[in-house]
Amino acid sequence: MELGQEILFFFSALGVFNGFIISIYLLLFKKSKTPTSYFFGLLLLVLSIRIVKSIFLYFYLDLPLIYIQIGLSACFMIGPSLYYFTKSALIEPEKTPVVWKRTYWGWFLAIVLFGITFPYQNNPHVWKYLCPQLIYVQWSVFVILSGWQLRGLFAKLFNSTEKLSETEKSLLSIFIGVLIIHIAFVLSIMGAFKGMYISGALFFSFILYLNIPLFINRKKSNTVFLVDQDEKRYVNKKILDEYALPLTEKLERIITEQELYKNPDLKLGDLAKKMNISTHQLSQLLNDNLGKSFTVYINEYRIEEACQLMVREHAIKLEAIGYEVGFNSKSTFYAAFKKHKNTTPKGYKEQLSAS
């Protein structure tokens, strides 16, 4: 290997080595694991596996077929990893939703079973021609889906009146980095010049070091991203409408179906766990998107239930109604009722009788 090739090999392999180290840290040793760090670790892992295969195949053409198969299989998981990493970074769920796990590991099981059934050694034509086309089509679909999720950030990027936070900049740079790596590999299999194949590995090293602050654990980090004092001004930003609407619908469904408002000890954190999102995100949804505090929002359900009880149960005492719908005292029931209905429970019941 000539000096120029040795330098090229060194810088290509350097990013891969660090990618493996960081992914292992995020997946196994990071104390506060979140869905974001989990899928970011998986994204780095499969990218590193795919790129290390490219590096060795570029410099050593007689690479054993099993390593080529592993590299292509890892490539099959890049798209899903990017998609769920992007999604989790935007909505910040406290736990990974079950449907995400099933879908992600369903893809993984599919490629593993395919590899066992049709190994590269016995089916070289399939892995050399058919699999790359299917894999890169699948990767393209997930890149498009991930980019669509980030459209709000891209709009902000080109809006002079709004500034991206450091977290948002890092998220965009990671997406763009994976996109460029994807384009480099696609062009290489389409027969573009040979340098495109190794350029994907080089750009991986570049984008990895560009985002190195993401991997430095600091006391104030609550996800894989670093949330510092400069970013606190973004805490009160509204959740994007495309994410707020399904969250609001889920919130209403959980509260009504499970009648959680009837629990006088219901806390914001309890409801966030039911929704599988962070307490901060639920608070943000209520305060910034719906314009209501947690107490006001829950009391609305309680008051509506109290009004229905007054219509259905004429003999029940007003104080008993308050306890029935979730208030822990007569005074809080009366105060909340008057605030929402501009009259007392007694006055409302008299209005019902008069009508």
UniProtKB/TrEMBL annotation:
SMART domains: HTH_ARAC. Residues 249-351 form the HTH araC/xylS-type domain. One of its GO terms (molecular function) is sequence-specific DNA binding. PROSITE patterns: HTH_ARAC_FAMILY_1, HTH_ARAC_FAMILY_2. Keywords: DNA-binding, Membrane, Transcription, Transcription regulation, Transmembrane, Transmembrane helix. InterPro entries: Homeodomain-like_sf, HTH_AraC, HTH_AraC-typ_CS. Pfam families: HTH_18 (PF12833). The chain crosses the membrane at residues 6-28, 40-60, 66-84, 104-121, 133-150, 171-190, 196-216. This is AraC-type DNA-binding protein.
